[in-house]
Structure formats: C-alpha cells, structure tokens
Amino acid sequence: MQEIRWNPVLSEWVIIASHRKSRPVDAGASTQASCPFCPPSPEVEGEWDVKVLPNKFPLLVPDPPLPESSDHWLYKVRPGKGVCEVVIETKEHDADLADLPVERLKRVLEVFADRYRELGARSYVKYVFIFRNKGKEIGVTLHHPHSQIVCFPFIPPLIKRELRSSQQFMKKRRKCLFCTILDHERKAGQRVVFENESFTVFLPFYARWPYETQIFPRRHIQSAADLKPNEFSSLADTLKHVLVGYNELFGFSMPYIMALHQKPTDKGNYRHYHFHIEFYPPYRSRDILKFPAGVERATGTFTYDYEPESRAQELRAAFARAGHAK
Ligand code: ZN
Ligand code: ZN
Ligand code: FE
Q: How far apart are CA 132 and CA 112, in angstroms?
C-alpha cells in the first residue's frame, strides 16, 4: 500500500508506504560488502564525485497505485505521488561528510540546487525536501555517506508554519522575518557560532534541540537555486566549519539531522521566505541523548534544559578549535 491519508484532527497528511517494512534495518546493511552504494553494485560503477540515484525504498513514487477507498467521508486519501532520491556524496564507504574538502562539498551543494530545480519543475512536486540523517542515534542503517531528497505533493506542516509567520511579518512590518532575526543575532553576537563573507551560523534564541544551529545566507534568497557561484563556495566553507565543529565538540563523530528549508515549488509567491539550513544533533551532553518524550511528542512544545547562550558559547569554542581545515 502506498497512499497519503488525511488526519482530520491535526489537519495534516500521513504518508503510508507499507513496502518500506522490507528495507534493510539490520546492522549487516552497514558493512561495505553489502552496501548498495559500493561496488559491485552496477549503479555506482565508473568515475564520479557525487551520484544521484532513485531511492529503492521510496516513500512516494511518480506512478503510485490508486489509493484504497476510505471507509468514511472524513478520511480523505490521495495517491502516494512524489519522488525520492538519494545523493551519494563520496565513493568512500567509511568517510564522513566532514572529511570532504571544501571543493567537494561545493559539488554536493551544486547537485542539491540542480535536483531542487529539476524535480521542483515537475507539476506534481509542490515541495522538494533535501536532508541528511547521520548516525545510528538518528536511526541511520546505511552508513555510506548520503543525503536524501523527498519530493512532496503538498507543503509539509513545519514549512507551512514558517511560510505563514514570515508572510504575516512581511505584511505587517514590510521586511523579512529571517533578515530581521539575522540582523539582531549579528548585533547581539552571543548566539553566533560562525560567520564568513556570505553566511552566518547561530544557535537560535528559540532552539528546540540542545546544539541546534541554523545557517542563514545574509542575502535574502529563497532557495539554493538562487546562490551565485561565489556563494556556493562560501556555503561549502560554512558547511565544512559546521561539520568539523560538531565533530570537535565532544571529540566524536556527531550524529545530526541536516535540513534545507527552501521555498515550495508550487509556483506560488514566496518572496517573504528566506532560505536556510537547520542542524539538529541529538546529544544534550557528551553522553546523554535528548529524547523528545511526553511534552514534546504529545503537545508539540519543546523543552530546553540549559541556556541556549552557553551552549552557543561551547559550540563557538569547538568551531574555533576545529579551525579552518580545508
Ligand atoms: Zn558503501
Ligand atoms: Zn530575508
Ligand atoms: Fe526553518
């Protein structure tokens, strides 16, 4: 079964993809011998830096079956239509994205922008979500470095909320919500973790995750497709600092979720939106994980057990220690 069901209580869609239960979840899937992104897998033969492949266990597909009919008029269903791809960032099975030189990170970002443009041009793709899960703590079973692309036939709820807030802010104040936050963070300085010629990294005043950071371009743009060549280089440099900085923080390879927040591709007007990248590492200290539990999961309100400002200071110090490794 592959379909999208409406939750009339929360007013949101749920993606049902029952075939995904057969995807590899055992630790064996993480060894190089059984890795689908390593030879002898035919798709990865030949020379390449970055490889884009269809996801073999897609949440959504371009030609989904007709949905099963719902058993109540309240329960809307629609086909599980979309596209899912994987972006393999290196041939090195045991590498970490943080190991790649800045030039190679730039290639990865250019591929993200290309896929955003190309997949977003399809009429049924309303939102191109590009993200990266790293680490067994996040639930990753396939350890070969890769990012994922999920193209939704609707705008997902968190994105909708960001769009609504920034649109209302623009209407009322005639300026961008994100630019306003960025200006303030740069003036205040206490939550800024890193900055280069075109990007600023900070731990949000309103962080949900202990060591959450966000990368904001200082130019008001809506997606990675709007980046100029020098900005791709600058973003690659920023990304390198974030990745090695996180690994430096506790002295081990830091797991995280990395998410690109870009404007929807439904041809709407989103001039009020501002492209950014969010990072959520799951640790709240060197040996304790933050588990979203009762309050977070059942009410949607996040709790933060330390001061964001001191964690920003820790991160800033770790980023500085990690230095400018290219
Ligand atoms: Zn591999
Ligand atoms: Zn802006
Ligand atoms: Fe965001």
A: 11
Q: Which ligand is nearest to the CA of 214?
A: 3
Q: What one-character DSSP code corresponds to residue 215?
A: E
Residue 251 CA to ligand 1 centre (angstroms): 24
pLDDT digits (tens, 9 = 90+) for 223-264: 999 999 999 999 999 999 999 999 999 999 999 999 999 999
Q: Residue 19: its pLDDT value, please? A: 79
CB contact set of 295 (below 8 Å; sequence gap of 6+): 301, 302, 303
Residue-wise burial string across 230-259, b where 16 or more C-beta atoms lie within 10 A, e elsewhere: ebbbbbbbbbbbbbbbbbbbbeeebbbbbb
Give the distance (Å) from ligand 3 centre to CA of residue 276.
6
CA dihedral 175, 177, 178, 180 (to 10 degrees): 70
Read off the pLDDT band of 326 (50, 70, 90): very low
DSSP assignments along 278-305, one per residue? EEE--EEETTEEPPP-HHHHHH-----S
